[in-house]
Amino acid sequence: MLGADFVKGHGLGNDYIVVDGERFGIPLTPERVRLLCHRNLGLGSDGVLEVTKRVDGFFARIWNPDGSEAERSGNGLRIAAKFLSDHGYTIESTFVIVTAAGPVTTEVYRRAGRVYAVRLEMGRASIDRAIRSLAIERRRLDVTVVSVGNPHCVIFGEPLTRERLFAIGPLVERHAQFPQRINVQIAAAESRASARALVWERGAGHTLASGTSACAVATACFDRGLVDGKVTVLMEGGQLEVEVGSDLSLIMTGPAEEVYVGTLSPDLRQRLLEMQ
To answer: Most buried residue, 54, 155, 162, 239, by most Cβ within 10 Å?
Structure first.
């Protein structure tokens, strides 16, 4: 079990703070999460994973840095699986983590006693056939809207540049078509076995990588006939391997790395306790 207050980990540069929800000692709230994730005033991260052990397994509550919650996170789940394995919560190589979107079967791969990669059975994707284009900036974007437990809008035919992502990412995230907001990717297939994507996450903004985004991009490219069933999705932080079944079932495999184990300072702890 974790003896410190938290662990900082990342999957392809998409970084999360991980806490044991029963041992952390401070109930998490949106305001407290925003401070913890603040890169100048807090620990700094793309989110917080609040992991708890249950009689029937494990549950991961996934917080975005703006204090909202995510139904699922592929990178977050790989980080959570590594946390549970490396810190002695389970000795099994295969186990289930439940999220707000349902259970995910995880399989960890170890080297020298530590987890270096995780395979996730992400369930079946679904595609919203009613939305094929989106009006933004007096033009229409070519899109595929995908759910992989959380919602994604994959955009095709746009330059894969940060400049373009920063211009349209926030507009698409908060578009009236998506009242609960949506994750956004600019994507393109590069071959029958690879695709490239830039990521704008709901509640977080630009991130270097996203596991569910990689699944959404692979699904959208597969549905358009651009790729085969095994796809390497390349993002700024690195690459993930995604398998897409004929029924749009998804398996994702990729790395997870622990950056450090930490203890809150008395000052930060006091600030958190003073918040609601």
So the answer is: 155
Q: What is the pLDDT of residues 17-41, one digit of tens each?
A: 999 999 999 999 999 999 999 999 9
Known binding-site residues for substrate equal 14, 64, 74-75, 150, 183, 201-202, 211-212
Q: What is the pLDDT of residues 132-156, one digit of tens each?
A: 999 998 899 999 999 999 999 999 9
Share of the chain above pLDDT 70, in %: 100
Binding residues: 14, 64, 74-75, 150, 183, 201-202, 211-212
What kind of fold does domain 6-122+257-274 have according to CATH?
Answer: Diaminopimelate Epimerase; Chain A, domain 1 (3.10.310)
The structure's pTM equals 0.95
CATH topology of domain 126-247: Diaminopimelate Epimerase; Chain A, domain 1 (3.10.310)
CB within 8 Å of 47: residues ≥ 6 apart: 16, 17, 37, 62, 63, 64, 65, 70, 73, 76, 204
How many other β-carbons are positioned within 10 Å of the β-carbon of residue 275? 13
